[in-house]
Write a structure and sequence with these properties.
The structure holds two protein chains of two kinds.
Chain A (H helix, E strand, L loop, with lengths): L29 H48 L4 E5 L5 H7 L14 H9 L4 E9 L3 E8 L2 E9 L3 E8 L4 E2 L6 H5 L3 E3 L5 E2 L2 E2 L5 H14 L1 H4 L2 E5 L5 E6 L2 E7 L5 H17 L5 E5 L8 E3 L6
Parallel strand pairs in A: 1-3, 7-10, 12-13
Antiparallel strand pairs in A: 2-3, 4-5, 5-6, 8-9, 10-11, 11-12, 13-14
Helix pairs in contact in A: 5-7
Chain B lengths: L4 E8 L3 E10 L3 E11 L3 E2 L2 E2 L2 H19 L5 E6 L5 E10 L9 H12 L7 E8 L2 E3 L2 E3 L9 E12 H12 L5 E6 H9 L2 H6 L1 E6 L4 E7 L2 E8 L3 H11 L4 H11 L12 E3 L10 E3 H23 L11 E5 L8 H9 L3 E3 L16 H15 L10 H10 L3
Parallel strand pairs in B: 1-6, 6-12, 13-18, 18-19
Antiparallel strand pairs in B: 1-2, 2-3, 4-5, 7-11, 8-11, 9-10, 9-11, 13-14, 14-15, 16-17
Helix pairs in contact in B: 4-10, 6-7, 6-8, 8-9
The chains are: A alpha+beta, B alpha+beta.
Chain lengths: ~300, ~400
């Protein structure tokens, strides 16, 4: 027996390393027991802590899922009853049609608002779009549209002659929902080259000075502006306006000087009208204080 | 990335249990971070005679050290000693068989294996195989690889101890839910601290005289070539004083500390000292010559027994590095002179100043500091502790595996 169990020593190598180091409960002193107990408590505490954190995380996840489901259910229980569209020109029906929001039962929370916004913003007339859910049953769409400053005539192979609108940044688009008077009041653009690009047209270069000129003319001298028919960019940076009374007005592209140029034009027009001229052939405002005026052959009435 | 490892050196001695905790950072540097001590109980002459008492005092010391260090110990290096530690020399030789007569790795492994294969009694376990220099055609060589020769000899000094006694010491540590990474003979640990590389290269003897046992180790050529243990120590001096001068053991212990000298300093036999020095009833004068003579005889006897155990390794010409004394009893006055008289070579007291400062420079901590140094070397070699899992899972498993 002693041969078999000499302190748990293996007979193979007779090294101290063969001594069994497993601890028997009986051999543990009170001090060691307390330490082991503490160590175990810490280990168990760590495990329990980890489980609690895991359980809490799981619970939060499930709660989040439940909340989504309940909100989703609420949305279905109260389908969209009203779609509010706020725009300056785009008609409500066109917006709903374009976003495919007609003729189907809509789930307020099921709608992908981001996708709708992206789709609507892809239309050139829309500058920016805001879409929001108005709980419990309404969808709100606000479209900030481009403001046309001029129009251009193009010849389309399939659709024939088209009138396109151009905003101050040179964006060319088919205007939707504008009134006939509004479009009629816009001058035509001449001397431009439209290039097709991704289903539309490339933005026109040099439109910002034109827009500034037109807006200042509308503001300072509306009686002049209302007779402006065409703005030509053919000699850009000189801007040539063709109007009813003065057949050709040449502006220089100095945006800070439009007000002065318009004042001179107004003075010249008044002057010639006072002398009963029915039409002036050309006024060149590009030479500062020296303004050549070309009288018409049928000048006086 | 190498994480730091917390190791402890533990010495369960006859007078006290010492626990020193060190942090091995990056596998290279050692920081001593905790010390725990307790009075030893259940240990006699280095042997455990009462497992539970020895467990209690050892565990108290470990707990104290852990609390001071503020960390948990990962592994333990345990010092062993005691009356049962013995050693023997074993030799083996092989013929160099390669065509060029150059020694190969296989031949070195073969001769080492043969030398270490000597059987020992079934109740004994090997603690260390201390390799001595190889001999290649009667030339002493340290590393014979690729050297030319016909016959390669290996010689090992095998230190072994009683399996039950060593098992008891290990199980005391296991009882604290700690694993013993290695068992080291006390003298070997001490020797690594109190000697210089020069002394170890030249040949020196380290004697660690404790309360109940004396460990010794001989270093030659920079390595330990012989080590052992005697069941003799400071207790025996006190015991002889007690019997010879008819006093209680406690009084003998006190008088040894107050007036003890390892050589007779006071030739005047009439010179006396007071036993208790408190002038109370029972106090009496004791002849100083008698005290010193008894101590001298006992210490001389210890040295002579050590010398006998050393055989030819104890000759003065083989100990040109001298004798280094350590342990509590080495604090006796004139002990160097006594040693020099026996060994015929210069002797000094060892200190731990190479690795320790302050309180730890005291020779009583040489063993535990040596254990930590041993642990550092062990870690630096990158050896894995067999059967142990590291990392979080290993820790968790160890934490839950008791009982």
């Amino acid at each position: 027996m002693a041969r078999k169990k000499a302190a748990g020593v293996s007979r193979k190598t007779n090294s101290w390393k063969d001594i069994d180091q497993d601890v028997k409960a009986k051999s543990i002193s009170k001090t060691a027991f307390k330490r082991i107990l503490l160590s175990r408590c810490r280990a168990v505490g760590a495990i329990v802590g980890a489980f609690l954190i895991l359980a809490a995380a799981l619970k939060l996840f499930v709660m989040n899922e439940d909340l989504s489901v309940s909100l989703s259910k609420a949305g279905r229980a109260l389908p969209i009853k009203d779609i509010l569209v706020e725009s300056s020109a785009l008609p409500r029906d066109w917006v709903l049609e374009y976003l495919d929001l007609n003729d189907r039962e809509l789930d307020l929370l099921g709608l992908d608002i981001g996708q709708l916004k992206t789709k609507l913003e892809s239309h050139p007339q829309a500058l920016s779009v805001e879409i929001a859910r108005q709980l419990p049953d309404a969808l709100f769409i606000a479209v900030n549209e481009r403001e046309p400053v001029a129009k251009a005539l193009v010849e389309d192979v399939r659709r024939g002659r088209l009138t396109l609108l151009v905003d101050r940044y040179g964006i060319v688009y088919e205007g939707i929902g504008y009134g006939a008077n509004q479009i009629k009041s816009l001058p035509y653009l001449d001397g431009i080259r439209l290039r097709r690009f991704e289903g539309g047209f490339e933005p026109l270069i040099g439109m910002e000075p034109v827009a500034n000129l037109l807006s200042q003319a509308r503001e300072i001298a509306p009686h002049l502006y209302q007779s402006w028919k065409v703005v030509s960019l053919a000699e850009y940076p000189r801007l040539i306006v063709k109007s009813g009374y003065v057949r050709e007005i040449v502006f220089q592209k100095d945006e800070s000087d439009f007000r002065t140029q318009l004042s001179r034009l107004d003075y010249i027009v008044d002057y010639y009208k006072s002398y009963a001229y029915s039409q002036v052939a050309k006024v060149d405002l590009t030479m500062n204080s020296q303004v050549p005026v070309e009288k018409s052959l049928v000048a006086r009435r | 990335m190498y994480r730091s490892k917390i190791i402890a050196g533990i010495e369960i001695g006859t007078s006290k249990v010492s626990v020193l905790i060190g942090e091995i950072a990056e596998g290279r540097s050692l920081n001593i971070i905790g010390l725990g001590q307790s009075s030893s109980k259940g240990v006699l002459k280095g042997d455990i005679v009462d497992f539970h008492e020895a467990s209690d005092c050892t565990h108290a010391a470990i707990l104290s050290a852990e609390e001071q260090a503020g960390v948990k110990i990962d592994g333990v290096y345990l010092a062993v000693g005691g009356s049962d530690i013995e050693g023997f020399s074993s030799e083996a030789s092989v013929n160099v068989t390669s065509d060029s007569n150059r020694v190969t790795n296989e031949e070195i492994e073969q001769v080492s294996g043969l030398a270490k294969a000597r059987e020992i009694a079934e109740d004994r376990v090997v603690i260390h195989h201390l390799r001595r220099p190889y001999r290649l055609d009667n030339r002493s060589v340290d590393t014979p690889l690729n050297m030319e020769g016909d016959r390669l000899e290996a010689n090992y000094w095998t230190v072994h101890g009683n399996a039950r006694k060593i098992g008891d010491a290990i199980h005391i540590i296991n009882g604290f839910n700690l694993h013993v990474d290695d068992v080291v003979l006390g003298a070997l640990a001490t020797g690594s601290i109190v000697t210089t590389e020069e002394e170890k290269r030249m040949g020196c003897l380290v004697i660690d005289i404790g309360k109940g046992a004396t460990d010794f180790a001989v270093f030659q050529g920079g390595r330990c070539v012989l080590a052992g243990c005697l069941p003799l120590g400071g207790d025996h001096i006190s015991n002889d004083l007690s019997i010879g001068l008819r006093m209680r053991l406690k009084q003998a212990e006190s008088i040894k500390h107050r007036y003890g000298s390892a050589t007779v300093e006071h030739k005047n036999k009439g010179e006396k000292v007071w036993l208790n020095n408190d002038f109370e009833i029972g106090d009496r004068p004791v002849r100083l010559w008698s005290i010193e003579k008894i101590i001298e005889l006992r210490i001389t006897e210890v040295f002579q027994v050590v010398q006998k155990k050393l055989g030819t390794y104890g000759r003065s010409e083989r100990l040109s590095g001298g004798v280094v004394l350590s342990g509590g009893t080495s604090q006796l006055r004139n002990i160097e002179a006594c040693s020099e008289a026996v060994f015929g070579t210069h002797t000094r007291r060892g200190d731990n100043s190479a690795l320790a400062t302050g309180e730890l420079r005291d020779p009583q901590y040489s063993v535990v500091i040596g254990l930590l140094k041993y642990g550092l070397q062990y870690q630096a070699t990158g050896d894995e502790i067999e059967g142990r899992q590291s990392g979080l899972f290993g820790k968790l498993k160890r934490a839950l595996s008791i009982g």
